[in-house]
Design a protein that fits this description.
The complex is a heterodimer of chains A (192) and B (606). Chain A has 8 helices and 6 strands, in the order E-H-E-E-E-H-E-H-H-E-H-H-H-H. In chain A, helix 2 links the parallel strand 4 and strand 5. Classes of the chains: A alpha/beta (192), B alpha/beta (606). At the A-B interface, helix 1, strand 2, helix 2 and helix 3 of A face strand 8, helix 13, helix 16 and strand 19 of B.
Amino acid sequence: MKEKATNVLVVGVGGQGVVLATEIISEVAMEAGFEVKKTEVHGMAQRGGVIASHTRYGRNITSPLIGKGEADYILAFEAVEASRSVEYLKSDGTIIANEQKIVPPIAHFLKIEYPDDIKKRLENGRRNVIFLDAYKMSLKLGSDLLVNTLLLGVLSKRVGLPEKIWKDVLVKRFQKKMLDLNLKAFDAGRSI
Amino acid sequence: MAYKDQNPILISKKKSEGRAFFSGNEAFARGAYEAGVVLASSYPGTPASEILENLVQYNEIIADWATNEKTAFEICIGAAMAGARTMVSMKQPGVNIALDPLINWSHTGTPGGFVLIACDDPGQHSSQTEDDTRMVAKFARIPCLDPSDSMEAKEFVGEALTLSEQFDTPVIIRSTTRVSHSKTIVELYPREKHPVKGFERDPNKYVVVPSQAILRETEVVKRLLAIKEYVETSPLNKIEMNSNEVGVITSGIAYYYAKRVIPEASFLKLGIPFPLPERMVKEFASKVKHLVVIEETRPLIEEEMKIIGIRDFIGMDYFRVQGELNPNVVREGLKKAEIATEESMLVIIQTFEAPPRPPIMCSGCPHRGIFLVLKKIDANVLGDIGCYGLGFSPPISAMHTAICMGASIGNAIGMAKVNGSDKPIVAVIGDSTFLHSGMAPLLDAVYSQANITVLILDNRTVAMTGGQPTPASGSRANGTPTEKVDLKKLIEGFGIKFIKHVDPYNIEESLVVVKEAVVFKGPAVVITNRPCVLMPKKIKGMPYTVIEDKCIGCEVCMKIGCPSIEVTDKLLKRKGRIKTINISTCMGCSVCSQFCPTEAIQLLGD
């Protein structure tokens, strides 16, 4: 039986919540009745390094790894990581990228400037790019811990998994204290 | 492709207890539970650590961390000698450490089912080597299973234990980072009962004095022949006949990469790549026009095929002889071999240049201060394996060697003995690595009265692998309190005459003590006393801040490599830019404030 898959790559910096995001995407896809595989590398990546987590869902899923040129969606938690991951994007795929900059400390030491034209380079005149300042939006909603859910909201509107399942999974995942804010952030993401 | 579809015979009798989305490592733990494992042991190491971490949730299994992989292996041998089903797990370099008991345990054979889960790390995401444990299985002349996903990871534990008991042999399951750290859907089954049989004396079999061991050698040869016969019909080795044009022989995660790229091919999926099912391979090879072998990491299947006289195939030269496989590498390899693949016209966008983001020491890391002190005295620093390995990378750049677990002290002794350094020789080793394999070399330093300084960075945990406890932490794998070793008393017992504790957050004090230690005649030990700031729990103090008027843009604070110190856009009149401290990530260790020449870095609110 032939594989039929939707490929979602989530990238960011260790500690930003990338792994939690793909946990949620995977759970939603599973609840929606799809077969799911997900992979990422633990260990050194936790020390402020790059983290890339792959989720593939659909029917007869084979490899958990998304190949270069195969991602239907890239969800980037950090601007430079969006640009680093672009080689994974399908030619008609969509990048959803947080404008937030986390400058690697080594960049200053090596005298490498953090690029300021990431949006333009990502779009390259034709690609599907959604560029938003999720960090600022998250702060406005009342906490700096909502970037994750907000970006998932943006993705949810596009991947086509049912909104109700997303919300059911969020309700299961978040403690009461933070749940309302997260649901608000998710809706804010969906409105983009 | 569910395991159930592939192996209906194997699991049709089992009653499902529901489904779960498990990583390979969670699945290995669940597999041990279902297969009636009674005791498990391990030493933390990525990508294997989560196996034991997940085992502690099953009350039926006795699961503890050991001080090192050799000890973990020997504890499991003891349980298996008593007829208990046992599982030992470790990362691949750990297998090198446990090789001595592994080889001898292969010779004696095992009364209780015994499985070793070895996690290889192709691509070296977090390992010093990318070796292939299937090769170790060949060396030890025992079978090796190679699961492709979490369901197989779980089921193969039971298969391995049955095989172990049937053939009186330890069995290896080789995992890789992508199996251990990928999550796939698994079907859960109830636990089988395998009571502990009790130890039965059989010294002729279990005492490896040469006169007895040579008799066992004959048994090992016979056993391997019997296993070779078994693998010909094992349901874990499966032929999926599709097109006669291309036939792929593969094992482990490589199976799914191949399936992804060339789904219409025929497959011989080797759940047991060693020993090779000779007749099965020959039959499969005869049925297809183009034979392809796709495996990760070393050419084991390929070499075994050449031994049985099959040479006409597309092998590792076409794919990758170093690094991790992935669908792209498989696709490119097949293209080189002129074999048509799915989506061969894939468009790949060129990534544009981005600043690198290597892992660095965390904000507030207690290792930072001590490396800055070692840099000040310009010592030759012989390092070891752990988070402090990051002391090697810029801008700190104060660690000059690191060979393997526990190597630092022995290396220092050798260098000191040949008068090979005009600078102080300092061995740097973490608490867990010291207890793992640093104690014996420290005894050597005492015995040979080597003029070295040993810095034990005691952060009370195995930090790099996720904060597991050590014998010096005071808690066991499941969190229950236990005795804790007193490092100072332990070392005093060795006969070390210079032992001092320092606070690595206090640069001045650390500098004075380290200077005393390096001029001390004979081995000197300095122990740092700050716990890891992140694990097992986060320790955040009041953050520091930059007084902008006082900042002269000198860059000294940037040279300590703290991720909480950032450069602002504000230009100074003279030159350079004003720095700032991210108060939400600053842990308040104060090290940067001790280096700032103008006292521009102050405690927030002072």
